Amino acid sequence: MARDTDVMDLRDTLARNAMLPHDAAASFENRTIDAEGPIVVMNARCDRGQGFIPHYTINALETWFCTRGTERYDVIGRRLDTGGLGQESFEIPPHMVTADGLLILLTDAEMARLRSLEPSLHRSTN
Fold this sequence. Notes:
The chain is of the alpha+beta class and 126 residues long. The protein has a single domain, classed as 3-layer Sandwich (Rieske Iron-sulfur Protein), CATH 2.102.10.10. 11% of the residues lie in helices and 14% in strands. The chain is built from 2 helices and 7 strands; from the N terminus they run αβββββββα. The protein is globular and about 45 Å long.
């Protein structure tokens, strides 16, 4: 379902991926890491500023649901246009994947330092 979703059908069309330019589209590829299959790295918190953690619902919809604001997010954390008060998709934090497949979460300062050493670094995958 998430792979086939048209970005224009989302409430938030931005990837919100710290590894990409700020205006990158919320495509499946821009929200996942492809390392032997899709992996999702995201901060699963409602964007309403109160830090609520939505619950994952295992059903035909495969969505995250915030009981506080009634927002729904798809399986890769994109904000669906289903009502509720929240507007933004879950953020994807700065991260990298090492050659041996280790996932490392980075601070913003660490990411800035890596980019200064390797200006072409915009994604965690090749």
